[in-house]
Design brief:
Low-confidence stretches: none
CATH class of the largest domain: Alpha Beta
Strand order of the largest sheet: 14-13-10-11-12-15-16
CATH superfamily of the largest domain: ATP-grasp fold, B domain
CATH topology of the largest domain: D-amino Acid Aminotransferase, Chain A, domain 1
Mean pLDDT: 93
Number of helices: 18
CATH architecture of the largest domain: 2-Layer Sandwich
Radius of gyration: 21 Å
Strand content: 15-25%
Distance between the termini: 54 Å
Shape: globular
Number of strands: 16
Length: 424
């Protein structure tokens, strides 16, 4: 029997990396990690066989040189991204990586479009998907015009998160006379390396988007897989019912929901229009009976473990695609389609949820009623939950995650108070 190829995973602090390592490790694939992180929880997983120290993704030249050199020595590993930065970097350098790695990713121009909110909006129009009212000014005159006319309140954010130094989710402005000064300040403070500016001159430009508070409480997350032909396609849906920070942040609690048929087909059209194939995660706001697309992520993502547990083993699908096992890929996608509606009904990042409830309750940032609501939510879903980090057969990453968080609080108490306790 032919040995299974190894998978090389990067972005070690991402929950999607841990989920992919567990999914493929349980199936017998050798799991290799490459990154400069020393204490990432995934390093404690029993499914990880090797940890390779490599340059940071912030040093593009050194990282690509390392990947090429390692690939020459040990060719044949499957390389798949768990961050936007690595997805773009891998696609940009596919010609030098492809001789040594098994890749399953579209051209870099496809990622340029999907990760640029302005270009993504144009693709959505072609695919028949709706987006929030927004403006993507490229000059000061266009910015002034947009600031004076876009419906309030306004969320000012970056056109792309690629290689952003700040990684913030944006700035919310509620008064008309504050929009232009806030947008100009945001534009000036958008920091990226000079090389990124040369390759993507639009990267630091701001987007002004109408903010819908009612849409963020229960945004719809749709994730899935599409092959190169666009024929093999599968999705899963979930509602983001709690995030951290609560106004704009990462998912803490999700609930399983079906994907509306019109969105299922709309995302398929969007992928085909863009020329995209592989794993995706798409976020929609639900506003006044309409779903408005706000984000497209072309890689493994935060709550990947939830989708795997619901019968959609996305890391396996990418492995089969990357290794040209078409018949097995067809069978695996069809099996994932038949498994729709099965498996756990909720996702939680339990440690971070407990931390937020305790600290924000103590600081009166959450009312006792709110705290009690989320405690009851957790108890109601006990027995049908998937945790972001903790797993019954692999407990060490959870313990490492808790220890790392407590150490961070001890070292940076002010940052913890600002970003977690008093964040809204």
């Amino acid at each position: 029997m032919e040995a299974l190829p190894p998978v090389l995973l990067t972005s070690l602090h991402n929950c999607g990396t841990l989920a992919a390592a567990r999914c493929l490790g349980r199936l017998g694939y050798p799991i290799w990690l490459a990154g400069d992180a020393k204490r990432a929880p995934v390093l404690r997983s029993k499914y990880v066989q090797r940890h390779l120290d490599c340059p940071s993704i912030d040093d593009e030249k050194a990282l690509i040189e390392w990947l090429v050199e390692f690939g020459r020595k040990e060719p044949g590993a499957v390389l798949y991204p768990t961050s936007d930065d690595f997805a773009w970097l891998q696609a940009r350098h596919a010609d030098v990586l492809a001789p040594y790695y098994r890749l399953y990713a579209p051209k870099v121009e496809v990622l340029d479009a999907l990760l640029d909110k302005h270009a993504l909006h144009a693709l959505c129009v072609k695919a028949g998907l709706k987006t929030p009212p927004s403006a993507s000014p490229e000059t000061e005159a266009e910015l002034e015009a947009a600031a004076a006319t876009i419906p309030l309140p306004v969320l000012i954010k970056q056109r792309t998160q690629l290689f952003s130094k700040s990684r913030d989710k944006g700035v919310l402005v509620t008064e008309r006379d504050e929009v232009l000064p806030a947008a100009k300040k945001y534009w000036q403070q958008s920091v990226r390396a000079d090389e990124v500016h040369q390759l993507l001159p639009w990267a630091s430009l701001p987007v002004l988007q109408t903010y819908f508070a009612e849409g963020t409480d229960q945004s719809l997350q749709v994730s899935g897989f599409i092959d190169e032909s666009g024929e093999l396609f599968v999705t899963r849906g979930c509602l983001k019912v709690l995030q951290r920070p609560r106004r704009m942040g990462i998912s803490l609690c999700l609930e399983d929901v079906p994907v509306p048929p019109e969105l299922h087909e709309g995302i398929r059209r969007l992928c085909r229009e863009a020329g995209y194939f592989g794993v995706f995660e798409v976020e929609f706001l639900h506003v006044r009976g309409e779903h408005l697309l706000i984000d497209f992520n072309p890689r493994y993502y935060h709550y990947l473990a939830f989708c795997i547990a619901r019968g959609m083993p996305l890391p396996l699908l990418t492995m089969l695609g990357a290794t040209d096992q078409h018949e097995r890929l067809v069978d695996a996608v069809h099996q994932a389609q038949r498994a729709q509606g099965t498996g756990p009904k909720a996702f939680v990042y339990r440690y971070q949820l407990e931390e937020m409830l305790f600290t924000q309750g103590l600081a009166r940032q959450m009312s006792p009623r709110e705290v009690a609501h989320w405690v009851q939510w957790y108890r109601r879903h006990t027995g049908s939950l998937v945790d972001a980090v903790d797993a019954p057969d692999d407990r060490a990453p959870h313990l490492a995650d808790v220890a790392q968080s407590l150490a961070h609080i001890a070292r940076h108490p002010r940052s913890f108070l600002r970003q977690i306790v008093f964040a809204t």
